[in-house]
Amino acid sequence: VNTTSTTDFITFEPTVDDSKVTVEVFDGVCNTTGTAANNAYSVSVYQPFILDIASSSYEICLGDSVTLGVGVIQGKYNKLDWYSGRLGDVLSVNKQEPIYSVAYPQAPGDVYFSAVASNGVCEDDTVIVGPIDVHEPISVQLSANVENVTIGAQVVFTANVLSGNPLSFEWMDNDVSIGTSLINTHPYEPKSSSEYKVYAGDGVCPVAFSTIELGVVLPTAFTPHFKDGLNDVYMEGYYVIIFDRYGQKVFEGGNGWDGTHRGVLADPGVYYSKVKLNNGKVVSGTIEIVKYD
Q1: H or E stretch covering 73
Q2: What's the rounded mean pLDDT across residues 208-228?
Q3: Distance CA 148, CA 190 (A)
Q4: Which of 83, 104, 25, 279 shows the shortest CA–CA distance to 176?
Q5: Other C-beta atoms within 10 Å of 23: how many?
Q6: Distance CA 187, CA 100 (A)
């Protein structure tokens, strides 16, 4: 700073590159070259803050945590305060490190976090990160529209959503997948008594599941005499043994019974059956051949 001021003070604007002040005194007679005063000093110059803030994730499950980080583009702070929300509850005061790991509050929805940097000289700078979408954990309960279903008939499974917002469902029969869907219902034709399960997920929270036991019963009647393609075969695809009411074996085979005995259609009436299900269990029942006039 060069000046011809005769006062004992001066106002100037130091910069980051030029912050040293030296005073030289002249009297114009005895001292024409100037004498450096002993009170020369340097002024600390801080640049205004330019900060950035980011989160390690912008979608998490309720109860999980994220890591928040402040990046310094310009300036230098010596105090960093963290807040939940937009300058809401204080999370941490006078934290020097630019990284902060924080657990979420116990409520789903959009969440914000903020940080305030200061150095006692420049104007404080506030940066806000969000929204961070906090998902509610998923809970489902599997149910069926019937307690027992006739083999060959259809049951409708429903994944009743108790909490969360699942986006996809996978349906299982004894841990074998029988389909996936974007809706919470699934039609199915059970082949045997089994344990059924549904998995529900949203891509963020842990996958939830629920199970249900469902029994099956054998059909009690069929109409082989009509040959109309409807209910013409008893237990098609299953190994069956058929007896008449006297206990005489009428039929035995691995693809159901078409209602014939010795090459001709059996008489209408009630017969006894043994059927081997897909799970290996053999069940007994009665089957009636129905013929309408």
Answers
A1: strand 65-74
A2: 92
A3: 10
A4: 279
A5: 15
A6: 48
Q: What percent of the chain has pLDDT over 90?
A: 50
Distance CA 251, CA 264 (A): 12
Q: Name the nearest CA neighbour of 155 among 176, 173, 181.
A: 173
Is the Cβ–Cβ distance between 133 and 58 less than 8 Å? Answer: yes
CB 51 within 8 A of CB 73: yes
Total Cβ atoms within 10 A of residue 216: 22
Going by DSSP bridges, is the β-strand pair 65-74/50-55 parallel, antiparallel, or unpaired? antiparallel
Residues contacting 215, CB < 8 A, separation 6+: 147, 148, 149, 193
Summarize the confidence of residues 263-277 as an average pLDDT: 94
The structure tokens listed for 221 are: 């009647």
In our burial notation (b when 16+ CB lie closer than 10 A, e otherwise), range 102-136 reads bebeeebeebbbbbbbbbeeeeebbbebeebebbe
Q: For residue 197, what pLDDT is reported?
A: 98
What does pTM read for this prediction?
A: 0.72
Check residues 73 and 170 and name the one with the higher pLDDT. Answer: 170
Best CA proximity match to 192, nearest among 212, 173, 172: 173
CA–CA distance from 170 to each of 35, 177, 202, 205, 208 (Å)?
A: 88, 7, 12, 16, 11
Dihedral through CA 233, CA 236, CA 239, CA 242, nearest 10? -10
Neighbours of 138 (CB within 10 A): 24
User: Which residues are bridge partners to 185 per DSSP?
Assistant: 158
Q: Which of 219, 224, 203 is nearest to 266 (CA)?
A: 224
- What distance in Å separates the CA atoms of residue 224 and residue 243, rounded to the nearest whole number? 17
**Phi then psi for 67, rounded to 5 degrees?**
-105, 125
d(CA 161, CA 157): 13
